[in-house]
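#struct-help
A.M.: can someone run this one for me? Single chain, 277 residues.
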Amino acid sequence: MWRVVVVIAGVICGGSLGQNIVAAQPAPSTEEQFYDLVFGEGVVDTTLTPNLAREKLVSILKSTIILIDVNCGLNEEQQFKLRIAGEIQIEHLLDQVDEKRRVFLAVKGDPVRVKHLLAEIRPLQDAWITNPFLKGSLFWKALRKALPESQAMKAEALFEQLLSNEWQETIETFVEIEGEALGLDDTHRSRLQAVLTKQTRPSNKLVPYRLGDLLSQVSRMPETTFTSVLEKKQWQALKTELDFVANQPPRIQGRVFRASHERPRGQMRPAAQFRGN
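D.P.: on it. Structure tokens below:
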């Protein structure tokens, strides 16, 4: 079965990545492979069909409405309107996927047309890994119409705070991983966290993919941003990692980053040389 598979053949060694190989099977040619491409999450065990995708989106929708109800209060009519808007939004996304599926099956024998189609479905891939019911969505527009202004503003503030809290947790995860790998003391970890909090923007990606968004942002920061946080060799080691991760598909960037820091049993972390004494 076709999968996009990332193979990390080397490990971080001496502050730089070893031989890293991104291996991909030939272009997809079956309907199942098309769904892998749209809904896949890198190395997965089962194909996520449109029906399963719908179930996942409906679950997110239900959780979103419950969260708003608990914190802002919703009557039955408001809940109904939000549920309908969310379901319409879900169907719209899946209709777009089905439209591209039909095009894909019609052109799958033409490598050039398949290549162009793969570029066209990128927005669908991004939509799948993004929280679909945040500000700007059809769901959110329905919320603004269904709720009084004060209630809608309360819901908006709630989600902005949740997004901020989740982003802070993502930053803390990054600092914890790199703090150990680069041997940062508590002071430097606090400084790194402060820099990232100030100079990155919260991502609306779903939790499994949010770390990848942070990695992409950090990889584009100039070295001068970190002069008060990291030594030059530490920044160079980190930049090498981030440059590699930034070239991976968005849905597996966080996974690749974590995998590159896994410590073989009985061995010290490769970047332990940066620790003092």
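A.M.: thanks! The chain is about 65% helix and 5% strand.
D.P.: also worth noting: The CA atoms of residues 86 and 92 lie 10 Å apart.
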